[in-house]
Automatic annotation (TrEMBL):
This is PucR family transcriptional regulator. It comes from Thermobifida halotolerans. InterPro entries: CdaR-like_regulators, PucR_C-HTH_dom, PucR_C-HTH_sf, PucR_dom. PANTHER family: CARBOHYDRATE DIACID REGULATOR, DNA-BINDING TRANSCRIPTIONAL ACTIVATOR ADER. It comes from the Bacteria. Pfam families: HTH_30, PucR.
Length: 485
């Protein structure tokens, strides 16, 4: 919510004084505008605290009344008059007009710059926005936690967040499933016609209506165009932006919850969640992630990858975890303590690849490990290969996404330099020539002293010893892998 006029007036350092409009101190101030125009309204949106020094004020009584009427019609929050510039006091014609029409009038002392008032309102707006976001974030987190207890808990939580309002969950046919508070179920008859209209649309859509002096919204619930029910909310006032965000979040959670009643839809949702986790599109770190972490298998977890998707899918239906079929491969996330890889290999006969045990925040890396282990299982005709049993180090990562990532990190000090392209080319030529200056310089088309200068700079940027043969080998492989990528 924007700050009220009363909040702005209560800022001590501004030393503002209210001259008229004590009954309108709760008027929201959405911005501050400064204008000496006879008619500034074409340049206003409404909600502004308009500031003027009256430097051009020569209005008579009728002109003053017209000026004030225009400001009120535009929705101005109040008028601030700067004293001590052109007028030591508010002109009587203006004072009479604001008193007649009830426009809030504020006296601004000479020592208070108009820009100070603008900065204060801007600060209050930013504070209000931050507090609103914090409240919305907390409320959304509580909604997510409620979703773990079912659709009814989501409706109750949303109803508690909507001040002076009610929330109603309807079945696809419009009959009540759950209401908060319970007496809100009596509103169903008022919504019958609107629910019937929404149900007849080719594409699900939400609706807003007025009934019984209340503002009501109705949203269809479901995924991929399937209507599984409706969410209705109502109250004496239209939803503000924070409340709309909460209602939309609740609708999404309820849609997912209602889809759980369809086994095929549930499998798609769980598979979509696993795909998002494995690619890093969804993370389980940071505030608000606790409900998602609670819905995942117990840490540490492993990622299991197998071919022969049909048999693997049949096995996965009886397991605790998340399963996904992607590109003919079966991927599974389960608790390492239950060793799902071994059980899958015994069920299908392999090949199966298993990652190392990791936390929920390392699933993309675990997928790369499981894919590499599956490749080794196929190559060696083995039923089961665990990544932990494969050769470690940089060479063991060669050709995998993790290996490319390692190569990029190894060369990052050079890539980030303003002459990165020259340095990388010089390093490659130097390594390819086994450290022979003349041959390397000739391949680059530069003088050997130029190459010596570049290699000296490379030695300064890289953390390792360029004379170490192992480090040189890693650099060479890193260059080759990034060239291919």
């Amino acid at each position: 919510m924007p700050p009220s006029l009363g909040t702005v007036l209560r800022t001590p350092r501004l030393r503002l004084r209210l001259l008229n409009g004590a009954d309108r101190l709760d008027t929201p101030v959405r911005w501050v505008a400064v204008s000496e125009l006879t008619d500034p309204t074409p340049y206003l949106e409404g909600g502004e605290l308009l500031l003027t020094t009256g430097v051009r004020w020569t209005h008579g009584a009728e002109e003053a009344r017209g000026y004030v009427r225009r400001l009120l019609d535009r929705g101005v929050a109040g008028l601030g008059f700067g004293l001590g510039v052109a007028h030591d006091q508010v002109p009587p014609t203006l004072a009479d007009a604001v008193a007649e029409f009830g426009l809030p009038l504020v006296a601004v002392p000479r020592e208070t710059p108009f820009i100070a008032i603008g900065k204060e309102v801007s600060r209050l707006l930013a504070k209000a926005e931050y507090e609103g976001l914090s409240r919305a974030f907390t409320a959304q987190r509580q909604l997510t936690r409620a979703a773990l207890r079912g659709a009814e808990a989501v409706v109750d939580r949303l109803g508690a967040e909507l001040a002076q309002g009610w929330t109603l969950l309807l079945a696809p046919d419009g009959s009540p499933r759950h209401a908060h508070p319970p007496q809100a179920a009596s509103r169903v008859s008022e919504l019958t016609g609107e629910v019937r209209r929404l149900r007849g649309l080719r594409q699900p859509a939400s609706a807003s209506l007025s009934a019984g002096g209340e503002h009501i919204t109705v949203q269809p619930l479901g995924v991929a165009g399937r209507v599984r029910g409706f969410l209705a909310t109502g109250g004496p006032h239209p939803l503000d932006s924070e409340e709309r965000t909460l209602v939309n979040a609740a609708a999404s959670l309820l849609s997912l919850e209602l889809e759980r009643g369809d086994p095929a839809a549930s499998d798609r949702l769980r598979g979509g969640l696993l795909a998002a986790l494995l690619t890093g599109a969804v993370t389980v770190t940071g505030p608000g992630a606790e409900p998602l972490r609670a819905a995942l298998p117990e840490e540490p977890v492993v990622v299991v990858v197998a071919e022969g998707a049909d048999a693997a899918v049949s096995w996965g239906r009886g397991e605790e975890g998340l399963a996904l079929v992607d590109g003919g491969r079966f991927r599974f996330l389960g608790s390492a303590r239950s060793d799902p890889g071994a059980r899958l290999a015994a069920f299908t006969g392999g090949p199966v690849g298993v990652s190392e045990p990791v936390g929920h925040d390392a699933l993309p890396e675990a997928l790369a490990q499981a894919e590499r282990a599956l490749g080794a299982a196929r190559r060696d005709h083995a039923e089961l290969v665990r990544h932990a049993d494969l050769p470690g180090g940089f060479l063991g990562l060669l050709g995998t996404p993790a290996g490319v990532g390692t190569a990029q990190r190894l060369l990052a000090p050079l890539r980030g330099h303003r002459s990165g392209a020259e340095l990388l080319a010089s390093l490659r030529a130097y390594l390819a020539a086994s450290g022979r200056w003349d041959a390397a310089a000739e391949s680059l088309g530069v003088h050997r002293h130029t190459l010596r200068y570049r290699i000296a700079r490379i030695r300064e940027l890289l953390p390792g010893d360029l004379d170490d043969p192992d480090y040189r080998a890693e650099l060479w492989l890193a260059l080759r892998m990034t060239e291919r990528g």
